[in-house]
């Protein structure tokens, strides 16, 4: 089990791994903290994207370049992902830790990539103690850190999160077409934060034409977050270009109505987590194709009685064919002076037959 210093170090490693300056996409985010035998932080490092040093190498470099040049003999390395064993653009991190004289390694998550895995065995064969037993909270945080990357390794397509905002009677817009704003400021702020965690955000040509969304991730004061998603528009119909915004993500047109084809192209471009925000038609298309991995619903405590449905026809004609979802979380989103919306996080139960 982890001692108090290792517990703090792992929290710090997870924090630096999630640095918003680090690009998302086809490479995992990894953090590393080196501790002295007395539990003092000697150095820390993190991976900054393809072609840059891995977290362990970065931390070892920081330690060797420090003024004191501390010896790492018997030190502990706390890392968020199993050290790699393969030679790519950088050398094997497991070997680097062994050569540095590290005596113990705390690992938050095994590497699911068969090309890079094997670091745990190599470290143990070298006589290094390896700790994998973590408190549930830290294990969950480590799993969430690279869930898009891990999903891509397993399924060869991006993780798909679909987000919808609707009233209690399932409406996404009023009868006259107005839809801004069904939910309150807290829900809207959360959507902008959600965009910063995704590689790309996708809408359909209809949404692009009618709503002219910027698809940027903004703070409450209107300034842009440092991390911006690719802005994708899907559909064969004509649609205007998205509004030009300095600092916004690249715009991409996906000339297809087929969600599978869209995901294939996005995956080839390094997209590992896609946020679908594109209205009832696009949302229904991904749900029909069973390509939604996570559905986030912002539910407003209001009624319209008429208007556009939040999800279009799913091709379901009888109750036994309904699409059931597992409720993962339900949290209120209070807005000062406004309504308290409810955020539901759900996982669709895909049919196995």
From TrEMBL:
Similarity field: In the N-terminal section; belongs to the cytidine and deoxycytidylate deaminase family. In the C-terminal section; belongs to the HTP reductase family.
Keywords: Hydrolase, Metal-binding, Multifunctional enzyme, NADP, Oxidoreductase, Riboflavin biosynthesis, Zinc
Chain sites annotated for binding substrate: 179, 215, 218, 277
Highest taxon, organism lineage: Bacteria
Cofactors: Zn(2+)
Biological process per Gene Ontology, one example term: riboflavin biosynthetic process
Protein name: Riboflavin biosynthesis protein RibD
Binding positions for NADP(+) per the UniProt entry: 165, 181, 195, 207, 211, 236, 279-285
Gene3D superfamilies (UniProt xref): Cytidine Deaminase, domain 2, Dihydrofolate Reductase, subunit A
Source species: Brachybacterium avium
InterPro entries per UniProt: APOBEC/CMP_deaminase_Zn-bd, CMP_dCMP_dom, Cytidine_deaminase-like, DHFR-like_dom_sf, Eubact_RibD, RibDG_C, Riboflavin_Biosynth_HTPR
Residues covered by region (Disordered): 45-68, 330-353
Reactions catalysed: 2,5-diamino-6-hydroxy-4-(5-phosphoribosylamino)-pyrimidine + H2O + H(+) = 5-amino-6-(5-phospho-D-ribosylamino)uracil + NH4(+); 5-amino-6-(5-phospho-D-ribitylamino)uracil + NADP(+) = 5-amino-6-(5-phospho-D-ribosylamino)uracil + NADPH + H(+)
E.C. no: 3.5.4.26, 1.1.1.193
Pfam family, one: dCMP_cyt_deam_1
Residues annotated as catalytic: 56 (proton donor)
Cofactor note: Binds 1 zinc ion.
Gene Ontology terms for molecular function: 5-amino-6-(5-phosphoribosylamino)uracil reductase activity; diaminohydroxyphosphoribosylaminopyrimidine deaminase activity; zinc ion binding
SUPFAM superfamilies: Cytidine deaminase-like, Dihydrofolate reductase-like
Function of the protein: Converts 2,5-diamino-6-(ribosylamino)-4(3h)-pyrimidinone 5'-phosphate into 5-amino-6-(ribosylamino)-2,4(1h,3h)-pyrimidinedione 5'-phosphate.
């Amino acid at each position: 089990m982890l001692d108090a210093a290792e517990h703090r170090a792992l929290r710090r490693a997870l924090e630096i791994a999630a640095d918003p300056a680090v690009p998302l996409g086809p490479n995992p985010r990894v953090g590393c903290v080196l501790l002295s035998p007395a539990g003092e932080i000697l150095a820390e490092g993190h991976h900054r994207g393809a072609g840059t040093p891995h977290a362990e190498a970065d931390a070892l470099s920081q330690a060797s370049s420090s003024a004191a040049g501390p010896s790492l003999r018997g030190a502990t390395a706390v890392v968020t992902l199993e050290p790699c064993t393969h030679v790519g653009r950088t050398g094997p991190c497991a070997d680097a830790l062994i050569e540095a004289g590290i005596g113990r390694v705390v690992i938050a998550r095994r590497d699911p990539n068969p090309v890079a895995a094997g670091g745990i065995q190599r470290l143990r064969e070298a006589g290094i103690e390896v700790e994998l037993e973590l408190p549930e909270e830290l294990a969950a945080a480590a799993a969430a850190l690279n869930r898009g990357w891990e999903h891509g390794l397993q399924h060869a397509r991006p993780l798909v999160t679909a987000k919808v905002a609707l009233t209690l009677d399932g409406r996404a817009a009023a009868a006259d077409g107005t839809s801004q704003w069904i939910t309150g400021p807290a829900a809207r702020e959360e959507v902008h934060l959600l965009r910063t965690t995704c590689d790309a955000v996708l809408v359909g040509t209809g949404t692009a034409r009618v709503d002219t969304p910027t698809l940027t991730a903004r703070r409450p004061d209107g300034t842009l977050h440092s991390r911006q998603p690719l802005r994708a528009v899907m559909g064969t119909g004509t649609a205007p270009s998205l509004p030009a915004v300095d600092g916004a993500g690249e715009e991409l047109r996906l000339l297809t109505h087929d969600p599978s084809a869209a995901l294939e192209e996005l995956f080839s471009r390094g997209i590992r987590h896609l946020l679908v925000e594109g209205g009832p038609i696009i949302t229904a298309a991904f749900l029909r194709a069973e390509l939604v991995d996570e559905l986030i619903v912002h539910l407003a405590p209001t009624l319209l009685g008429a208007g556009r449905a939040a999800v279009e026809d799913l091709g379901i004609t009888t109750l036994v064919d309904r699409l059931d979802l597992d409720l993962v979380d339900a949290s209120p989103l209070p807005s000062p002076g406004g309504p308290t919306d409810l955020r539901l996080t759900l996982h669709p139960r895909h049919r196995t037959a």
